[in-house]
Amino acid sequence: MSDFEFLTIEVDGHLGRLTMDRTPRNALNLGLQRELAAAAAWFDETDVRVVILSGAGESFTVGADLSLLEGLYDDQVRLRLDDADAGRVMGDAIASMRALTIAQIHGHCIGGGIVIAAACDLRVAAEGTVFSIPEAAIGIPLAWGGVPRLVREIGPAATKDLILTCRPFGAAEAAALGLINRVVDSGDLATTVETLASEILARPWSVISTTKSAVNIAADELVSTRHSEDDAQLFLAAADDPEAHAAGAAYLKKIRERKS
């Protein structure tokens, strides 16, 4: 596929590989968010049965690009509603893919990266992967459908803990919480995921597809994502909250000073 600026796509029979390629850390700008949604739709038109979603370079993804924060707090470049909603659209597109999806996680998996991982069916992480949800410290709520997806996987109390403390946590804790399925040595990550994909592809397609559908229906009945359509409004509302605005401005200042 040559139509994507920030993604690479490979297809090998019934196996697809979707790689975020906005190196070095695959920060999720609007272009990458929209390309991920478009790639999910593209795979739905193929015979691919399993898709491995990974990140090129040093990380899976460090989450939303800082340009989105600047667009939230800078009155001159105020983020539009459809831009603020792009992450939710991306997550929903990944979650509803026809193929079974496996997130191959390494380096950092931050904020929106956790939303992407939670939207995948299975998740394998390398030892040493650092996870965190820093949004509250930045002055914004976790959006993009992240809250219901996390509640499904790790429960309400753990979701509140990780969102409100903003603390980093490792792959072992992520596995203990149920956020990821397996933790492997970093040198074995790609091989482990490929083996897992091969094991699943050995099953009849009817079994793969009906299992995914049945589990997703049951999960949505337990914790629905339908209210996530309001996330963009909540995200944009942070710009009008004085405390949130101060937190975001302080965060951006710290980042700029670190870069200077």
Explain how this protein is built.
This protein is α/β, with parallel strands linked by helices. It has a single domain (7-189, 198-259), classed as Alpha-Beta Complex (2-enoyl-CoA Hydratase, Chain A, domain 1). The chain contains 13 helices and nine strands. The chain has helices spanning 30-43, 66-73, 81-84, 86-95, 112-119, 135-138, 146-154, 156-165, 171-177, 189-201, 205-222, 231-237, 242-259; strands at residues 7-12, 15-20, 50-55, 100-105, 108-110, 122-126, 130-132, 169-170, 182-184. A six-stranded mixed sheet has the order 1-2-3-4-6-9, sandwiched between helices. Strands 5-7-8 form a three-stranded mixed sheet. β2, α1 (30-43) and β3 form a beta-alpha-beta unit.
CATH topology: 2-enoyl-CoA Hydratase, Chain A, domain 1
Question: Given the helix and strand composition, which structural class is it?
Answer: alpha/beta
Number of domains: 1
Number of strands: 9
What share of residues is helical?
Answer: 40-55%
How many helical stretches? Answer: 13
CATH superfamily, please? 2-enoyl-CoA Hydratase, Chain A, domain 1
Largest sheet: 6 strands, mixed
| Strand arrangement in the largest pleated sheet | 1-2-3-4-6-9
SSE sequence, one letter per element: EEHEHHHEEHEEHHHEHEHHHH
CATH architecture, please? Alpha-Beta Complex
Q: Please identify the top-level CATH class.
A: Alpha Beta
- How widely separated are the two ends? 37 Å
The gross shape turns out to be globular
What does the radius of gyration come to? Answer: 18 Å
In terms of per-residue confidence, which ranges show pLDDT below 50 for 5 or more consecutive residues?
none
Beta-strand residue percentage:
15-25%
Mean pLDDT: 93
